[in-house]
């Protein structure tokens, strides 16, 4: 019987969408089981295919990329019965299983399934990247393959940089873009473009450098959209690149290092950064929580903000991926005697920050653990910190 969507309520419509999502996961789980068995029998050879992925693409009418992905997941799920079963019963989606199979082992299968049920797809992808680690050899390869290319026909540029250099460039361009005033209609990506142009103009000394590095001025001396560029001798916008590392690693020993927003760093990369940087030491308590302020200060310290970002990595509202325009919010408001402590401070993007303050949504819980967001419809959603943060604490 066909569903007449125009005649059902919004709540019923959303419930139907959720059920269809579960049905898709269930069907995909069964498909992975069948594909996996075809692979173990190497039955695809009988139809002249060169691999399971090629057979899937040809027989099921999907792209080669989808064929490779399905073949990879089906092969990994054979040794991961908990994840396989979770997909078949619709407990987790395929998009969650996809990164999970790359970090799970037969010994950790059940635990990874639990994480997949609790974490978002993006958090699971973070875990998968962290699981692959970062070595000096890989960092050297990324450095040797760096490039910057100009397309004069389309006036575009593309680049690939190793993590530490990319973080520096990203920080500098972002800092310059934030100094450019916006009339409310200039998009963020346009301001980033203007920020890059400003940095190029500042690269030279004096008026000649301002013209040469950034290109000729606009006709009539007009400034770039979004605000005027500073004169050639103006100071460059200050920016900070944040990396977290074990002290032992800086001293030449072993440990882990992570650059904010980008993931793990190789030992050599973090030592190179520390060689020419101001090192800020943050002392954690036994639970890994940095500098509780209580009621001593209303606004979080810079150190607290860095740790909150490491914990949240983006807006904590469920499903929100905004990591650019964010602020730190007191769960129990300061005016209601809420402390300036990590467990009472959460990262929210501008949109969801306003929605909470306007009382459209309510948030309760411990920011270091589970937060619950309750909306005007009565629906409650939960949010957890980055599993990379909680894993380090464990």
Oligomeric status of the shown chains? single chain
Estimate what percentage of residues fall within beta strands.
5-15%
Along the chain, the helix and strand elements come as HHHHHHHHEEHHHEHEEHHEEHEEEH
The largest β sheet comes out as: 3 strands, antiparallel
* Beginning-to-end CA distance, first to last residue: 51 Å
Helix content: 40-55%
Individual helix count: 16
Task: Name the poorly predicted regions.
Answer: 205-237, 283-290
Query: Looking at the structure, what is the overall shape?
Result: globular
**Could you give the count of β-strands?**
10
Query: Given the helix and strand composition, which structural class is it?
Result: mainly alpha
How would you portray this structure in words?
The protein is built from 16 helices and ten strands. The protein has helices at residues 10-41, 52-60, 64-77, 81-88, 94-100, 109-118, 121-132, 136-144, 163-178, 188-202, 206-214, 247-250, 267-275, 302-312, 350-357, 387-393, and strands spanning 147-151, 156-160, 243-245, 257-259, 263-265, 326-330, 345-349, 362-365, 371-374, 380-383. The strands form four sheets. The protein has a three-stranded antiparallel β-sheet. Strands 8-9-10 form a three-stranded antiparallel β-sheet, with no helix packed on it. The longest helix has 32 residues, at 10-41. The termini are far apart. Residues 205-237 and 283-290 have low confidence and may be disordered.
């Amino acid at each position: 019987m066909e569903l007449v969507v125009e005649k059902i309520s919004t709540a019923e419509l959303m419930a139907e969408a959720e059920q269809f999502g579960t049905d898709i996961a269930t069907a995909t789980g069964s498909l992975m089981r069948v594909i996996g068995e075809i692979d173990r029998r190497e039955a695809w050879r009988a139809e002249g295919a060169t691999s399971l992925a090629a057979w899937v693409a040809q027989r099921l009418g999907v792209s080669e990329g989808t064929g490779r992905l399905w073949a990879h997941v089906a092969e990994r799920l054979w040794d991961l019965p908990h994840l396989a079963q979770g997909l078949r019963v619709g407990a987790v989606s395929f998009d969650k299983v996809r990164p999970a199979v790359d970090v799970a082992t037969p010994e950790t299968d059940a635990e990874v399934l639990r994480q997949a049920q609790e974490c978002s797809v993006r958090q699971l992808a973070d875990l998968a990247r962290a699981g692959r680690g970062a070595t000096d050899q890989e960092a050297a390869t990324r450095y040797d393959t760096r490039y910057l290319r100009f397309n004069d026909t389309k006036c575009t540029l593309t680049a690939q940089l190793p993590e530490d250099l990319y973080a520096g460039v990203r920080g500098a361009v972002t800092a310059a873009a934030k100094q450019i005033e916006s009339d409310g209609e200039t998009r963020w990506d346009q301001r980033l473009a203007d920020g890059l142009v400003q940095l190029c103009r500042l690269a030279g000394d004096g008026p000649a450098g301002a013209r040469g590095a950034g290109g000729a001025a606009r006709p009539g001396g007009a400034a770039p959209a979004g605000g005027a560029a500073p004169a050639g001798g103006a100071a460059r916008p200050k920016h900070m690149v944040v990396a977290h590392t074990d002290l032992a690693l800086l001293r030449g020993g072993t440990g882990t290092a992570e650059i904010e927003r980008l993931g793990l760093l190789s030992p050599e990369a973090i030592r190179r950064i520390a060689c020419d940087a101001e090192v800020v030491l943050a002392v954690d308590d036994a639970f890994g929580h940095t500098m509780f302020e209580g009621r001593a200060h209303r606004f979080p310290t810079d150190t607290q903000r860095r740790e909150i970002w490491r914990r949240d990595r983006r807006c904590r509202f469920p499903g929100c991926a905004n990591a650019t325009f964010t602020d730190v919010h007191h769960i129990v408001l300061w005016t209601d005697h809420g402390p300036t402590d990590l467990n009472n401070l959460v990262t929210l993007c501008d949109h969801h920050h306003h929605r909470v303050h306007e009382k459209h949504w309510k948030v309760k819980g411990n920011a270091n653990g589970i937060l619950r967001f309750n909306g005007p419809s009565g629906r409650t959603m939960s949010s957890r910190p980055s599993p990379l943060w909680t894993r380090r604490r464990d």
